[in-house]
Specification:
two-stranded parallel ribbon; 35% helix; mainly alpha; 107 residues; single chain; 4 helices
Length: 107
């Protein structure tokens, strides 16, 4: 759930999904969010190709985010900004395990 921006790590997230999908083809990854409209936007041809290749499911922006979260076993919020991720996930009771990385890419 995010605008599809490079600075949010969407490209790296899709690449990680490709690696996982190769090993576990039954896993389904969904990306929710609106395409970005600024220079930081992810190339939608890249996203559409990932959909075509079966790497991701992309329902675009949805109004009922809660139903997607309820269907999930893992929630990933790609971001280079640690504070944004921590603020969102800290109160989460739905997902007791949080996977984080420390990729100091923020400029």
């Amino acid at each position: 759930m995010a605008r599809l921006l490079k600075s949010k790590g969407i490209t790296e997230y899709i690449k990680a999904e490709e690696m996982i999908k190769n090993k576990y083809p039954e896993v389904e990854f969904k990306i929710l969010g609106s395409p970005g409209s600024d220079p930081d936007a992810v190339d939608m041809e890249y996203v559409n190709q990932a959909v075509k290749d079966g790497v991701i499911v992309y329902p675009r922006r949805v109004d009922d985010v809660k139903s997607y979260i309820a269907q999930s076993s893992v929630y990933v919020l790609p971001s280079y900004y640690r504070e944004e991720t921590i603020m969102f996930l800290s109160p989460s009771k739905r997902f007791p395990k949080v996977f984080c990385s420390d990729l100091n890419y923020a400029s």
